[in-house]
Amino acid sequence: MFSGNTSLSGGVDTAFAVIIGISLFFLIGITAVIIYFIIKYNKKKNPVASEIEGSNKLEIIWTVIPLILVLFMFWIGWHSYIPERQVPADAMKIKVTAQMWSWHFEYENGKVEDTLYVPVNRPVVLNMVSLDVIHSLYIPAFRLKEDVVPGKTENYMWFKPMVRGSFDLFCAEYCGLRHSYMGTTVEVVDQATFDKWYASGPAKIDSTVAAVPGAAGKLIVEQKGCIACHSSDGTKIVGPSYKGIFGHKTTVETNGKDREVMVDEVYLKKSILEPNADVVKGFPKGSMPDYKTQLTDEQVGQIIEYIKTLGGAAEK
Ligand SMILES: [Cu+2]
To answer: What separation in Å is there between the alpha carbon of 101 and the centre of ligand 1?
Structure first.
């Protein structure tokens, strides 16, 4: 409590402490009165019960005092909430993409990471979108949580970290099988470290990476979150593993009918861009997001190259 991890987390802590304090006061007070009355008015000490007519004075007191208290609790919460909605104009913008089951943080220079790096003492605004279902970005140490609702254009949160360190970041809205894998961290670093990290730019596919067959594609499936559902070692996660599929026949369901297809470049491309056209038998339809707007033809080509390196036709 009261760690002051961000410029506003103290307000949430205060509201929490005040409400807990008032609740505890009444819990203890009411319990004490009950016990006192049980003793004072038991049958031995008070054999004849007396009837008490109403008292306007009492009625007013126990209406007005709790009314003031609950309004005060509302006010103290509201008071700490309002500044959380007012994003400072100089806040650094980071675009957050939530999807089953990963987070991606995209910086203004095009850098994309699955860990949120931010400099200390500088306001940051997260503009969040969901590609599929409702997720919720939750940073307990910052006392912040905001739903990421698909289709809603304004999902945002801002904060100004005051303390350096590594803080947990979770998805707080149950979003399916691997919901619990949507955990990562916020790394609050000093400005110099941040600048150095930021200047290194987007994880580029440079000539050394490009020279290794499949390396570029491997980077893309990691960055785009495909690895949440597809393994490269034969393990079935949510979707089929990429291992050994290339050049083999597989059974898919097209328009409700089963048919055998050969896993080749054309099939793979279609599976990535229109996942629900041919649904691999034994896997649920509609679980794979459609990547039409997210991947260029070149990237799809690189992913296919990568899948080829994981074995298949060559082993036969
Ligand atoms: Cu989620």
So the answer is: 6
CATH (domain of 225): 1.10.760.10
238 is in which domain, residue-wise?
207-315
pTM: 0.70
Q: What is the pLDDT of residues 217-263, one digit of tens each?
A: 888 888 788 888 898 888 888 889 998 899 888 899 888 888 999 99
Residue 1: pLDDT band with limits 50, 70, 90: low
Count of structural domains, the chain: 3
Q: How far apart are CA 128 and CA 150, in angstroms?
A: 9
CA of 209 to the centre of ligand 1 (A): 31
What is the Å distance from ligand 1's center to 110 Cα? 23
Q: Give the C-alpha separation, 275 to 240, whole Å.
A: 12
Cα-based distances in Å from 231 to 182, 265, 310: 17, 19, 10
Do both 154 and 96 map to the same domain?
yes
Q: How far is the CA of 130 from the centre of ligand 1 (A)?
A: 9
Q: Ion ligand 1 — residues with CB under 5 Å?
A: 135, 171, 175, 182
